[in-house]
Amino acid sequence: MPKVLLADDDCTMVSLLKTLLALEGYTAASLLDQKGDLLDIIRRESPDILLLDLHLGNQSGLDLVRRIRDTSDLKHIRVIMVSGLNKREECLKAGADDFLLKPYMPEELFQKMNGA
């Protein structure tokens, strides 16, 4: 199963997603549980999929996805951006592979993660 890295500043959401992903057999880690440069953390975690919130506290998910796409050893990571605002076009233009509008159903998440 793919490894999923969660980048969301909502601790409750991260906890729920970790549980849901584990029940489905995925390995999940949280970006915000760790200290340091976000690109270094992503590199160290080496995820197959990054589930990235548009708003990360004081950081922009759009800026982060652009940095990932500009980094040769990270640009292969599948990035699914999520937000409570319908920012699909902005996220895709910035380099996201897909977008989910919150709140979403688990089935929607798994479809996106599987590239459907």
Write the layout of secondary structure elements.
Elements: E1 3-7, H1 11-23, E2 27-30, H2 38-45, E3 49-53, E4 55-56, E5 59-60, H3 61-69, E6 78-83, H4 88-94, E7 98-101, H5 106-113
Parallel strand pairs: 1-2, 1-3, 3-6, 6-7
Antiparallel strand pairs: 4-5
Descriptive terms for the model:
116 residues; 5-stranded parallel sheet; two-stranded antiparallel sheet; 39% helix; Rossmann fold
Outline the structure in words:
The chain is α/β, with parallel strands linked by helices. The chain has one domain: Response regulator (Rossmann fold, 3-Layer(aba) Sandwich), CATH 3.40.50.2300. The chain has five helices and seven strands. The chain has helices spanning 11-23, 38-45, 61-69, 88-94, 106-113; strands spanning 3-7, 27-30, 49-53, 55-56, 59-60, 78-83, 98-101. The strands form two sheets. A five-stranded parallel beta sheet has the order 2-1-3-6-7, with helices on both faces. The longest helix has 13 residues, at 11-23.
CATH class: Alpha Beta
Poorly predicted tracts of residues? none
In the CATH hierarchy, what is the superfamily? Answer: Response regulator
Number of strands: 7
Outline, from the CA principal axes?
Answer: globular
- Secondary-structure class: alpha/beta
